[in-house]
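We give its fold:
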Amino acid sequence: MDSDFVAQWSIPQQQLSPPVLVETIDGRPLHSGPVVAATRPLHMRIGLHMEEAVFYVATASHFPVVLGLEWLRAHDPQIIWSSGTVRFPGKKCATHHLDVCTGKVATPVDLDLPAELGDYADVFGEKEADQLPLHWSYDCPVYLVPDAKLPVGRIYSLSKPELAALRDFIDKNLRKGCIWPSTSPLAAPVLFVKKKSGELRLCCDYWKLNAITIRNQYPLPLIPELIERLRQAKIFTKLDLRGAYNLVRVRAEDEWKTAFRTRYGHFEYTVMPFGLTNAPGVFMHFMHDVFRDLLDKFVVIYLDDILIYSSSPREHLNQVRLVLQRLRDNHLFAKREKCQFAQTMIDFLGHRISPEGVEMDPEKVKSLQEWQPPWRVKDVQRLLGFANYYRTFIPRFATHTAPLSNLLRKGVKFRWGAEEQGALDILKAAFSSEPILKHPDLLRLFVVETDASDVAIGAVLLQAYAPAGTHVPIIHGSCRPPNGITRSGTRNCWRSKSLLRHGGTT
């Protein structure tokens, strides 16, 4: 029964718990989402047929009342076309629940959602997300350098579990229409990476294709800037999109460029795959346009990670509902098992965020504690790349890591000795000290402390808090001294200026 019709005639309603997913005659879920209300039992009369019935309440703008297939099957009415009448062959029917615009009613939704968000269960549905998106203005193009040689990669050897995962991937995505058989002159190899959950994720090795692709210059947000937006927030909700890149189509004329080959055949993508050099920029552009009017007001986004932040629970609920409606309107879906609602502490982009400040993600700290001594330059690069992400948490970071950075200098022979091991041990100890960076309070006095040596220049931005005006760190910064700066005072002044300008990342 149409919700406007129910309101017009003041028909009494009752809430449904849990909500019920209802599908239209072509098998698609109702666009308005799960049904959360039904009428009280009503007396219905069709000619001489009478029964007591309950109607689901939903948006059905074309008709005030719709009797669905379940009801038709139960009653099996005969239509007499010559007279325009309906005849019911059986005796008076028992009470039936009638379905609005439905071919069938799915099982009740049980996603462990907060009760206030139950009417958005469809945004978290796997079946709803398992639809091939339509082509539109955000399709991912793949522009190639003119006259470039088209790359063909060799097939990589895969283990037995990987081959099983490959076959499953091909079968599933052929069925969905996300890939199809290809005759493209290009062919990228495939490999697998293990997710946090232990599942295997297929990745195409597109590095040769990327080398001849004209780059999209759309920027990704700076993570420190996103974190800074949260400094006055008290409550957080995190949403993780289901399918992410696969929610965007590859431009039809460029699908052949995404081709990959496997033991089981040659295929190409119809949706945007991981590994394309322009995929992050294309997806970020799309997400920014969807949420542009909400960004930095109560939403920050990094690719498929959405964080909603608020100063009060009432305000937060309204803002979360607004974001979920925006997802629904744009046919985007969230992965319930990776979402968190109304938290006072939340992990986001490798940081643990609360009203008190920002910490390093404990899982990341644990992974550094388990880091084994490197045995080649590439391992040192990986170690420093990981540690650099958290350098603003660590006092005198550049000093501690100097022996490791020296191994990356041109012409330096790799040697792992006592000095290098000592630097790694100091780094692990600094990470395990669980440093917390306080959110800056722009109404409080800031203090900058600096230090300089021939090895590195460091500074820390502080603010005074109780008790007894204790100074707590806001951000740490350190680096090697630039060429030509030799005097200690000049070094300290240069570092202080850099810390305030760049937030400790120089």
In short: The chain has a mean pLDDT of 83.
